[in-house]
């Protein structure tokens, strides 16, 4: 049996009610973050009764996790594409990965701030992702591919290099969150330090 269409959906809208609710919550997160976001508010914005959400999601946390995942995908869609292994120079490509990571983390910070005290939502957010689709996964795959191509040392510790880049981006977000200012970041210096350790 196909999913039931909702009266809240306009004619010509092929989404299911579940998709409509995720899209509505994602839009609300994009516009106002996650702090104070309620089931009642999402239902009202979606044009459905409050209890309808529980027909399509186990609980509010599942809906928030899926909506936050959709928000991250939306933010990523507006960023420049990441470089492919074997193209350009490794240094320029790493700079692009760092810039992408910093821009992504900056953009999702307002939504993330309201979830800091909601570990169950963040755990479901992590579980909702496909393996290899997150920025960190793509960075690690890129580094492994460059190692396989011989553009990095054969014994390059790419897992640790990826963790360093991710850590720099997380530090920037935490600094913004707690002090309201992002630290000065020497991206060229970071890339040089990485390549001194993993370059051929």
From TrEMBL:
It comes from the Bacteria. SUPFAM superfamilies: Homeodomain-like, Tetracyclin repressor-like, C-terminal domain. Residues 38-57 bind DNA. Gene3D superfamilies: Homeodomain-like (1.10.10.60), Tetracycline Repressor, domain 2 (1.10.357.10). InterPro entries: Homeodomain-like_sf, HTH-type_TetR-like_transc_reg, HTH_TetR, Tet_transcr_reg_TetR-rel_C_sf. PROSITE patterns: HTH_TETR_2. Pfam families: TetR_N. Residues 15-75 form the HTH tetR-type domain. Keywords: DNA-binding, Transcription, Transcription regulation. PANTHER family: HTH-TYPE TRANSCRIPTIONAL REGULATOR BETI, HTH-TYPE TRANSCRIPTIONAL REGULATOR RUTR. This is TetR/AcrR family transcriptional regulator.
């Amino acid at each position: 049996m196909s999913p039931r269409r909702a009266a809240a959906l306009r004619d010509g809208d092929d989404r299911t009610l579940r998709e409509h609710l995720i899209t509505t919550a994602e839009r609300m997160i994009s516009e106002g973050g996650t702090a104070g976001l309620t089931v009642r508010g999402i239902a009202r914005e979606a044009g459905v009764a409050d209890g309808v959400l529980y027909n399509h999601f186990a609980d509010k946390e599942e809906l928030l996790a899926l909506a936050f995942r959709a928000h991250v995908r939306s933010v990523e869609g507006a960023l420049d594409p990441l470089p492919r292994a074997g193209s350009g120079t490794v240094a320029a490509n790493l700079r692009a990965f760092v810039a992408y990571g910093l821009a992504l983390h900056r953009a999702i910070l307002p939504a993330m701030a309201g979830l800091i005290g909601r570990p169950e939502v963040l755990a479901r957010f992590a579980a909702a992702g496909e393996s290899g689709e997150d920025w960190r996964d793509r960075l690690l795959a890129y580094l492994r591919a460059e190692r396989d191509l011989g553009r990095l040392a054969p014994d390059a510790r790419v897992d640790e290099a990826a963790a360093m880049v991710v850590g720099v981006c997380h530090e920037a977000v935490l600094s913004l969150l707690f002090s309201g200012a992002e630290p000065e970041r020497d991206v060229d210096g970071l890339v040089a330090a990485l390549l001194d350790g993993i370059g051929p």
